[in-house]
Design brief:
elongated; alpha+beta; two-stranded parallel ribbon
Length: 135
C-alpha cells in the first residue's frame, strides 16, 4: 500500500514545507553546562543566574530558546507529513479519526497482538499509521 497523503490547501503545503526546512536547520538546545556535569542531563532549562553569560546572550554562547525559532502557526504541531497525530490505544479509537486530515499513532503501551489488529483496521478505514510495526 502506498503512503497516504493529507488533504492540504496550497497555503498549508507551502507553510508545511517552510516548517520542515526550519526544523532541519534548528539547533539543538542544551541546558547551560550540560557537558560539564553528567547529573544535569541536556534537556533545556532557562538560565536564571545573576551573572549568567548565557542569560545575557553573550556572543560566543550557545543559542537559547526564543520565539524566533518557531514555525508558522497554522501548521504548528503537524507531523512532517502534514497529518495531525491522534494517539490510538484500541481499534475503536480509529472510528473517531478523519482520514483526510489525521493519522494514527499507536500508543507505546499497546502490545503486538492488539497493534496488529489496529493496523489491519486502519488499512480497512484507509487511515495512515505513523508508527507501524515491523512485519
Amino acid at each position: 500500500m502506498s503512503q497516504l497523503k493529507p488533504t492540504l490547501t496550497d497555503e498549508e503545503k507551502r507553510l508545511l514545507k517552510k516548517k520542515n526546512e526550519l526544523a532541519r536547520k534548528r539547533v539543538e538546545f542544551h541546558r547551560q553546562e550540560w557537558h560539564r556535569y553528567k547529573k544535569l542531563g541536556d534537556s533545556w532549562r532557562k538560565p536564571r543566574g545573576k551573572h549568567s553569560k548565557l542569560r545575557e546572550q553573550i556572543d560566543t554562547r550557545i543559542p537559547i530558546v526564543d520565539a524566533g525559532f518557531r514555525g508558522p502557526r497554522s501548521v504548528r504541531g503537524l507531523h512532517p507529513s502534514g497529518f495531525r497525530e491522534v494517539l490510538v490505544h484500541t481499534p475503536g479509537d480509529l472510528d473517531k479519526i478523519d482520514a483526510s486530515r489525521s493519522a494514527a499513532r499507536i500508543g507505546s503501551t499497546v502490545g503486538s497482538r492488539k497493534r496488529e489488529i489496529i493496523e489491519k483496521r486502519a488499512q480497512e478505514l484507509n487511515i495512515r499509521v505513523l508508527n507501524p510495526g515491523v512485519k
